[in-house]
Amino acid sequence: MSSQVLLIATLALAALLLAALVLLVGHGTWRALADAYWRRPLADARRALAETADRLELSDAGAAALGRLPARRRIDVFVELAHSVAGAPQLAIAAAARRLGVITSAERWCSSRRWRRRLRGARLLSTIGGGEEAVPPLLGDPRPEVRAQAAEWAAGHPARELVAALTGMLGDPRGLARFTVMDSLIRLGAHAVEPLCRTIADAAGVTAVSALRVGTMIGDPRLAGPARGRLDDADPAVRAWAVRLLGSVGGDENAAAVEERLSDPAPEVRAAAALALGRLGHWMAAGRLGARLGDPAWEVRRNAALALRSFGAPGELLLNRALRDEDPFARDMARQTLDLPEITLPV
Amino acid sequence: MGDVAQLILATLQWAVLAYFLLVNGFLALLLAMAAVDLRRQRMDEWLHARWRLLGSDVAPLITILAPAHNEEATVAESVRSLLTLRYPSLEVVVVNDGSSDGTLAALKEEFDLVAVHPAPIRRRIETQPIRALYRSRRTPALVVVDKENGGKADALNAGLEVATGELACAIDADTIVEPDALQRMIRPFLLDDRVVAAGGTLRVANGTEVRAGRVTRERAPRRFLPGVQAVEYLRAFLAGRVGWNRLGGNLIISGAFGLFRREPMIAAGGYRHDTVGEDMELVVRMRRRALEQGGPDRIVFVPDPVAWTEVPSRLRVLARQRDRWHRGLADVVERHRGVVLNPRYGAMGLVVAPYFVFVELLAPVVELFGIAVVLVGLPLGVDNIPFALLFMVVAYGLGLLLTTLTLALEEWTFGGYGGLRDRLTLLGFGMLESLGYRQLTALWRVRGLLRHWRGHAEWGAMERKGFRPATPRARP
Q: Which of A27, A120, A152 lies closest to B412 in CB terms?
């Protein structure tokens, strides 16, 4: 019985091994041959596209060189160059891509039932250009990857309704889409301020926090009003980010509002306020910051001490006084901060 | 010899054979899962412009934790290489773990370090005392911690406390990280808030060309020992860990390169000092804690090759390493035995943990036992030559098949390790693996198991020939 089983097992194993070897060697050989075969046409196509970027027009010979490539390799050639150009050369590349059907294919992919194909379409259009009709609907795609890609595309298209759609996605339940939306809004900068003001004023929870984060990065003074309106929000995370936003905008009114938050019931808000005052160099708040050296929360004590130290002489005076404070925690933090040869305010 | 004894011996032989069939069957399932995952991952990668992340103002801050012990000759180059990783929001915390050579002096000189008081660090994990904290005048992203010697786990814990990043990346001082590794590794964290840790594929650097802390030419090792380990690494990472993504998640993130959410790491208490399997132990503890108390619990494996590591090229060193890895595994299994077959822990309790006990931990014992039983059975007439050959075919032939399929998968997906010639070289090593090497590693692992029972907990020295001086190695 053993002999029969052995024979069958050995034959089966040998067949499987042979198949695996064919897969390994066959694919390697095929790839090497394909690379060798396409090396010259690829070089011609790259040269043709580089000339297009240079002369801002695709010649017939260039179109023929690009047309000789299979679709995937042609797309790769377009993407390679599109990453590296901007302005008129980028528009010329996009026009060439449209002429050769690359953009039309990508736009068709955007309406595919298969989400990976939609994703590819949006990626290609984000890189090469085009897709003004095809990509915006993808902002509401069920897949977060596709939504994120559409948001990335929207960063280069500052149309009012697109920016509004992006701010509406700031509360996206999936991190990737939320992150990309925030990133795109920051890239849009001034174009995003108006809808952001509305979102900051009206939104709650994650949406409000994301909007405030974006606002903090943009630092536009128009955002300060809605942010001040959120300083009494029930959610401490919203209050803390509102404080950070005001800290990034600056100005007397905002600094005074931030200073008030030093007595917020939530430690994360007090810590954010102390840091924002340090960043603003608002030395008039030194007295209140000195009082925070005895705060029950470690982050608040640290940020208050670092802010004081960043003020220079007025702050150091208060830190030196705190060395004789009755509160051992205040004394300790003051000593540690004064011992620093130099300070860096944490981000 | 009595009939009963012969019957027992024969039954044992068939039981061992069945065990090998089951194990190889499960490994084939893992490989199939990995193939599906890899194919999808490759499809998702096409046209993906990772570079856009580089210009982001909201990219999560990643802190790289790099423990260094007596690395004077290479530490400056390693740190320079880390500082030039392509990621927009990066902090590098180098922990000088009580070096007795000029490691700290080299860092001070190269990066113009200035001492800052260590006190504004919030201490939440007990570590050996921190002597001083330094920041660089030249490179604001660099922080150097100088502390009393306490071992790798202690150094990583100290780094964790100093770190300010939302994510922490633990690496060995001698790991060569691919420049865009962090761009690849961050993606699962952005995609899913439940992800708490991610690992990536490590490759064997022996045989490659390394310049200025970067692999400049990928090549399969040409010598037997590194070559056969390169095959093992490919199997472990490409087939094993990728496959687990779809079968209940991983339990191991290599100590040589892993990305974690920092807060859950600290909340779990950081790395344990009293185990030689501290990387696996931390992952199991974090996952277990999340399942018991809530919080992010997903451990994912990114198949992209993200880092290179040097493997032992001498038998003595390799023996110590495998002994230590198996002691680490046994220790983790013992500490977390309550997870095994416990439905409370879902797939981790019912699939992953039992696999690590019955396959990873016990396979070398069963393998050596099986060889012994066949060798005893042959002269006693319990089994015959065909049976012995059948045993070899099942035990080793299936292993070779899995190795070949893994190499084919590598060829179809990443095409790393140079060209086809390199993969055929690796196939050659895979064929030779069963002729002595595999039995030796089984022996070392069984020795590790026995030493664990006797209470040995030391790391043992690690010697390397290549581009960096010695530190203890982490398991792949």
A: A27
